[in-house]
Design a protein that fits this description.
There is one protein chain. The protein is 48% helix and 22% strand. By secondary structure, the protein is an alpha/beta fold. Strands 1, 2, 3, 4, 5, 6, 7 and 8 form an eight-stranded mixed β-sheet that branches. Helix 7 packs across helix 12 and helix 16 packs antiparallel against helix 17.
Length: 448
């Protein structure tokens, strides 16, 4: 039995992310990154410091912050959201930036400056429930802050949060300012892009086995990838559409939040070697159902089923779809079912990000790569894992991990440079760890 003592402490955890981040990046990458950097420097970071918070980690558009006091955490969140509402009241462009914030108080495990545990997971799930410009808290936060702050908490009732055993009573904080009201109005929604746009929401897992959740999520990711290869479609990235996982869905709200014309939702059932996918396409603005279908096949047919869903959806959106674009959308990164299944498990293991999760995901990805050495997505995710271990100081041999990350990223680009996800992730790793080739890959991605 190990003699190491695990450090635990009670903390108020604040989780925040940018609404429709991938959508904003798709419109104007440089402008969005510059605006977000300015907001961090002028609004977010100063308020965190003012209220004695500690930034635990940042994940692109996301932020995890620890506070010793619930009151400080809530005050910080309210100030940030009110200042953002004022900042957005007279925006200089139509690509406003809004945050969602979730706050929970709970016991956390501390390791190498990072924090883990249900307390962190609940805060992240609460953030996903919050509306753009809004704040969601748990009952524990509401109880501690009530009476100490002149704020109105609205009871949203008990919510079943993903991977949390017991329901959590959720509250939202009412921000009664004119600018805050403007922040949630339909008039401030993201504009539709110049080409057909779609968000693929997480499919329901109807297998009766929670362990198959990774398979349902993987099916959706593959459908997103297939649709992304159709050049005339604007497809919202997985990170943005999966913020709706485990939440009651209002497709009109999804359309407004993400700035898309169409929403695809459905379910996956896997049992006894058979797979059934049901899908329906909805026009976000009107809520009208445009198409629905069911796809049945054996597990060995899973790639064909994914392609059928993607091309059927594309055909409904644009009946004049060219045959060449259909062919492009159905090219597969691997034909090996074992490698594919291991890859899906690895991606599911990666989140929420932590040392143990990343190490386990890397072991699985190396297994997938050993089966299929030209599996682009597996190669680029393995590169991301190595990068994470280098940047977070989790590797015992950081230089070797750095070299491995660069090698994997380059192999991924050689294997699947036409895959937008592979291109983005691999270029990200190279940009951090090696500038060689990163700029050229970025230019290729922007012109896809």
């Amino acid at each position: 039995m190990s003699g190491e003592r695990v450090e635990r402490r009670l903390a108020a955890i604040l989780a925040a992310d940018v609404v429709g981040y991938s959508r904003l990046i798709g419109f104007d990458e440089e402008g969005t990154l510059a605006a977000l950097k300015a907001i961090r420097g002028e609004v977010v970071d100063p308020r965190i410091a003012e209220h004695k918070g500690r930034i635990v980690k940042t994940t692109g558009d996301g932020l995890l912050v620890e506070f010793a006091s619930v009151v400080d955490a809530v005050r910080c969140a309210v100030k940030v959201q009110r200042e953002m509402a004022e900042r957005n009241a007279n925006p200089l462009s139509d690509r406003r930036i809004d945050f969602r914030i979730g706050i929970h108080q709970g016991d956390v495990v501390v390791e190498d400056g990072d924090i883990f545990g249900d307390g962190v997971n609940i805060a992240a799930r609460l953030e996903a429930l919050a509306k753009p410009g809004g704040i969601c808290t748990s009952a524990r936060v509401q109880e501690d802050a009530s009476g100490k702050l002149e704020l109105a908490f609205v009871d949203l009732g008990e919510q079943q949060l993903k991977n949390i055993a017991r329901p959590v009573r959720v509250y939202t904080i009412r921000l009664d300012t004119e600018s805050a009201k403007a922040s949630s109005s339909e008039e401030q929604t993201l504009p539709l892009p110049y080409k057909p746009s779609i968000a693929v929401l997480p499919f329901a897992n109807l297998s009766g086995d929670p362990e198959q959740e990774y398979f349902a999520d993987g099916m959706v990711e593959e459908i997103i990838t297939a649709l992304s290869r159709i050049r005339w479609l604007f497809v919202i990235a997985r990170n943005s559409s999966f913020t709706y996982k485990g939440r009651p869905i209002d497709v009109k709200e999804v359309g407004r939040d993400l700035g898309v014309r169409y929403v695809l939702e459905g379910s996956v059932r896997k049992a006894a070697g058979r797979v059934r996918i049901t899908a329906q396409l909805v026009e976000a603005k009107s809520g009208a159902h445009l198409w629905a279908d069911r796809f049945d096949g054996s597990v060995e047919d899973v790639f064909d089923l994914q392609d059928l869903v993607a091309t059927s959806v594309a055909g409904v959106i644009e009946p004049a779809l060219q045959a060449a674009e259909i062919a492009r959308s159905v090219s597969r990164p691997t034909q090996d079912l074992t490698a594919y299944d291991i890859y899906l498990r690895a991606v599911a293991t990666f989140f929420p990000i932590g040392k143990e999760q990343v190490c386990h995901a890397l072991v699985l990805l190396e297994q997938a790569i050993a089966i299929d050495g030209h599996y682009g997505p597996a190669l680029c995710w393995a590169a991301i894992c190595c990068w994470q271990m280098v940047t977070d100081g989790w590797s015992d041999e950081p230089q070797a991990a750095r070299r491995r990350a660069i090698t994997l990223a380059r192999q991924a680009l050689e294997a699947a440079s036409d895959d937008p996800g592979v291109l983005a992730n691999s270029t990200f790793v190279l940009a951090w760890l090696s500038f060689d080739g990163a700029l050229e890959n970025e230019r290729r991605g922007l012109h896809r």
